[in-house]
Design a protein that fits this description.
The complex is a heterodimer. By secondary structure, chain A is mainly β. Chain A has no helices and eleven strands. In chain A, the strands form two sheets. In chain A, strands 2, 4, 5, 9, 10 and 11 form a six-stranded mixed β-sheet that branches. The radius of gyration of chain A is 13 Å and the shape is globular. By secondary structure, chain B is an all-beta fold. Chain B has strands spanning 5-7, 10-13, 19-24, 31-37, 44-50, 53-56, 65-68, 75-79, 88-95, 102-103, 107-111. Classes of the chains: A mainly beta, B mainly beta. Chain A binds chain B through residues 4, 31-32, 36, 41-46, 49, 89, 91, 93, 96-99, 101-104, and chain B through 4, 40-45, 48, 56, 89, 91, 93, 98-106, 108.
Chain lengths: 111, 112
Amino acid sequence: KQEVTQIPAALSVPEGENLVLNCSFTDSAIYNLQWFRQDPGKGLTSLLLIQSSQREQTSGRLNASLDKSSGRSTLYIAASQPGDSATYLCAVTGSARQLTFGSGTQLTVLP
Amino acid sequence: EAEVAQSPRYKITEKSQAVAFWCDPISGHATLYWYRQILGQGPELLVQFQDESVVDDSQLPKDRFSAERLKGVDSTLKIQPAELGDSAMYLCASSTDKETQYFGPGTRLLVL
């Protein structure tokens, strides 16, 4: 059974700092990997999707990398802003096209 | 931009009562998912529909939970009777290509 782990569970940084969120998964037979953002009490917003054949994806200040063989992904956020404060969830899609989520990293960016 | 709609947004109920949640997916999306997210955890799939058919309900507690998508469009998730441990966020998502799932705002359930 696929398991997804995210470290750290919570992170607090001053505004302007660059930061990295980590995600690991146990079964490398994935279809793709996604990073989501979730604001308190809200639904999920997809940030980046990396296909299994890709190594990274970029969107604005966000860059996600994927090392499928080692079962790891990172989300890099450049020049963090208070508006980036949210929970970031990593999810992998398996052969059944179903998402398995990690427990998330709660990010707080201090002004 | 089209969105997944869910209602109600919040629901407070007493244990042993029945509750129902509604989801209207993005028009044209054949695949619909219901997830449960306990506070501090990631969402877990409860049931997946392809049109009106259930594709996977292996994680759905069928003694108390039921889900239907009668016309292959909107869907209802029901809990009867509700238990304290059912307190969670219930998220609905839809997709067309099975790669990108679009999530609704969720229904937050509190069972007292």
